């Protein structure tokens, strides 16, 4: 076991900063323990590792286990948002000003791990969150590795790139993952080293690198880089709900599309993802006028 302590430079909210890494309440790679400590299992360049984080007396205390433990501790400040600069954001709307004031401890995490965020983002393409979370849980449970150290029961490290590429078709089907999404994950796994290089690229180059893989579009690339790179400008395009939430929160427009959203976010160029995070924290969704998206199940097809 290795340890490290990190002192945030100002107000800090551990749960909101790292909460975007959790894929549903039963994520095998992310747990919040009854004592409030946060557990995270990840596959690092050095191998599997488990990280336990505890906020105490204005500091974050970290413990790590496994071959990847040292890597997790070395990159701890980036993971906790130490490289993020929330002062670069200037609110220009009363809702954003209020959200920025009420959540001074929000930071944008940077994991430095592309495939870790890319796979679940692909699983979330064009399905409900519950469907994607179920697939993630099942695939990690059946094909991942046990989290090193004294991790809570059931915690798993996601498969490595080779293991993702070797998952048989019937296992994807069992997890409720259709052929398009499973094929995109396999293609990404086969070029994983090239995709991991995107963690050190600027916004434009990283977006282009990820979208060079068939099956990865702007939505998936942005969702990935928000987490792997801590990209404050990676605004999610092609989302079913986000444009309407942004439009409704800022102007009362319940029918806003991507173009309208980008126009509203133009004053926050370079910080558009942060603006969206704050809107989701303080904004509201427009009244629902259509039935909820039906949950499909390809296992019965």
Mind explaining what this structure looks like?
This is DNA-3-methyladenine glycosylase family protein. It comes from Streptomyces gamaensis. Keywords: DNA damage, DNA repair. With 301 residues, the chain is an alpha+beta fold. Among the domains are: 2-85; 114-220, Hypothetical protein, domain 2 (Endonuclease III, domain 1), CATH 1.10.340.30. The protein has 15 helices and 7 strands. The strands form 2 sheets. Strands 1-5-4-3-2 form a 5-stranded antiparallel beta sheet. A hairpin with a 2-residue loop joins strand 4 and strand 5. Helix 4 packs across helix 15 (272-282), helix 5 packs antiparallel against helix 9 and helix 5 (114-123) runs antiparallel to helix 12. The chain starts with a strand and ends in a 19-residue tail after the last helix. The mean pLDDT is 94.
List the helices and strands and how they pair.
Layout: E1 2-6, H1 14-18, E2 30-32, E3 38-44, E4 47-56, E5 59-65, H2 69-74, H3 76-79, H4 94-102, H5 114-123, H6 129-143, E6 145-146, E7 156-157, H7 161-166, H8 169-174, H9 179-190, H10 192-196, H11 203-211, H12 218-228, H13 242-251, H14 258-265, H15 272-282
Antiparallel strand pairs: 1-5, 2-3, 3-4, 4-5, 6-7
Helix pairs in contact: 4-15, 5-9, 5-12, 11-12, 13-14
Output the structural class. alpha+beta
How many helices? 15
Unreliable residue runs: none
| Biggest sheet architecture | 5 strands, antiparallel
Q: For the record, give the distance between the C-alpha atoms at the N and C termini, rounded to a whole number.
A: 47 Å
Q: pLDDT average, as an integer?
A: 94
CATH class of the domain at 114-220: Mainly Alpha
Q: Work out the radius of gyration.
A: 19 Å
Strand content: 5-15%
Query: CATH homologous superfamily of the domain at 114-220 - what is it?
Result: Hypothetical protein, domain 2
Keywords: DNA damage, DNA repair
Protein name: DNA-3-methyladenine glycosylase family protein
Organism: Streptomyces gamaensis
InterPro entries: Alkylbase_DNA_Glycosylase/TA (IPR051912), DNA_glycosylase (IPR011257)
